[in-house]
Specification:
With 141 residues, this protein is of the alpha/beta class. The chain has a single domain (5-135), classed as Rossmann fold (3-Layer(aba) Sandwich). The protein has helices at residues 9-15, 22-30, 39-51, 56-69, 80-95, 102-113; strands spanning 5-7, 35-38, 74-76, 117-119, 133-135. A 5-stranded parallel sheet has the order 3-2-1-4-5. Helix 3 packs antiparallel against helix 4 and helix 5 packs across helix 6 (102-113). The radius of gyration is 15 Å and the shape is globular. The two termini are 23 Å apart.
């Protein structure tokens, strides 16, 4: 199957919870061969784990990231094409007073330039980007 879904950081974070949302987990498992993440999300996930004090929780999160994600899910980079798409969209949105967060713009750019569906819980953060398809797996039936 082709890679179809770019999952946002909050989707991976949900899977790392002791009791993740059942729908998110089911959709992740059923689309496993179609899922990728961006290197921006990888960075955000690592920062979240490394920010924690050394503890069982931090170790568990790091183990999840390195053992269950790193070698099983492809990561797409923020490249030149994504940077150009992001610049165009960021400038357009700034002109109308809707400046998106920089990292959300990067993630949106990776999804858009790879013709992927962006899966996120924070649909509103991506609503203003042109040419971006977004799904919320927390609301899927």
């Amino acid at each position: 199957m082709a890679i179809t879904y770019l999952v946002d950081t909050n989707i991976v974070s949900e899977l790392m919870r002791p009791h993740p949302n059942a729908t998110v987990r089911m959709l992740w498992e059923s689309h496993a061969s179609e899922i990728t993440i961006s290197t921006i999300s990888w960075h955000e996930l690592l920062v979240g784990a490394m920010y924690l004090p050394v503890s069982k929780r931090r170790t568990a999160l790091e183990n999840f990231l390195y053992q269950n994600l790193l070698n099983r899910v492809e990561m797409l980079p923020y490249n030149q094409m994504a940077a150009e798409w992001h610049a165009i969209e960021r400038a357009r949105l700034m002109k109308i007073g809707r400046t998106p967060s920089f990292s959300d713009g990067q993630i949106a750019a990776v999804a858009a330039t790879n013709n992927m569906i962006l899966v996120t819980r924070n649909v509103a953060d991506f609503a203003d980007f042109d040419g971006l398809t977004v799904e919320n797996w927390f609301e899927e039936s």
